[in-house]
Amino acid sequence: MKQPLVPVVPMSHTAHIRSHRKPRRTATSTIAVRAGVAGGVLSTLAVAGASSAANAAEPVTQTLELPTLTADLAAQVAQSADATQQAAANYQLRAERDAAAAEAAKQAKADLAEAEKKAEARKKAAEEARQAAAERAARDAERPSLTTTTTASASVSAPSSGSVATVLAFLQAQVGDAYVMGATGPNAWDCSSLVQAAFKQVGVDLPRVSQDQSMVGTDIPLSQIQAGDILYWGGKGSAYHVGVYIGNGQYLDAANPSKGVVIQDLSGYPASGAVRVL
Fold first, then answer.
1. How many domains does the chain divide into?
2. What is the pTM (predicted TM-score) of this model?
3. 193 with 210: CB under 8 angstroms?
4. What is the pLDDT of residues 194-207, one digit of tens each?
5. Contact between residue 187 and residue 171 where contact means Cβ atoms under 8 Å apart
6. How far is Cα 260 from Cα 269, in angstroms, rounded to an integer?
7. CB 209 within 8 A of CB 191
8. Domain span at residue 251?
9. Among 261, 236, 259, which residue's Cα sits nearest to residue 251?
10. N or C: which end of the chain has fewer CB within 10 A?
11. Helices in the chain by DSSP H: which ranges?
12. How many other CB atoms are there within 10 angstroms of residue 31's CB atom?
């Protein structure tokens, strides 16, 4: 039995050459190609992202540091301004103090010259008053029954005792002097230093302060006080002010900084008590 004949298809004249055959693309190769392409894209994106992140990181760092530097600089400028302002204020205050001190020194010099001028006049008057008092004392010693006469000031009674007259004459010479706490003359006094200095003229040593001066001598009722008695204000032993009674309802004292040494009416400022040492 004859086999059926199979038709023979003629081949291309280049079919036997391998390089001219069109290769068949398999699924595996297609996947590999796609994977390679995707990997390349992802690598590119990763590099670009990393570069962008690196580039972006530097401005962020600078942006965070800039406010800190600015704040520090602002604080330094503010501190410098404050220091400059404080220094200017200190210079101005010092200048004002220097100007005030210079003015005070100028005024003090003028006041001192005026005080010295007045002091000379008072010393001369005091010397004349002492001489007059000594003469009166001599006459009074010879005439014990002689009534009292008046001194140069109509407000001051001259007692028969020469010692009291000397005390009053000294006090009269100090009228117009300044009151300065703690001062002891010759041109400024406080209340107790003036009383102490007055009685020292006749050899009587009194304590320095008002409290102690109110404790010396003999207590005298205010209704029986005489010229030359020491008046005090406050409690006995705790007096805060003293003066000397000069007669005619008046006393002489270093009153206060605004008045200085003056003669005042006892009715305007009644004393608390009195003591007699002469």
1. 1
2. 0.46
3. no
4. 999 999 999 999 99
5. no
6. 16
7. no
8. 123-276
9. 261
10. N
11. 27-142, 162-173, 191-200, 210-213
12. 10
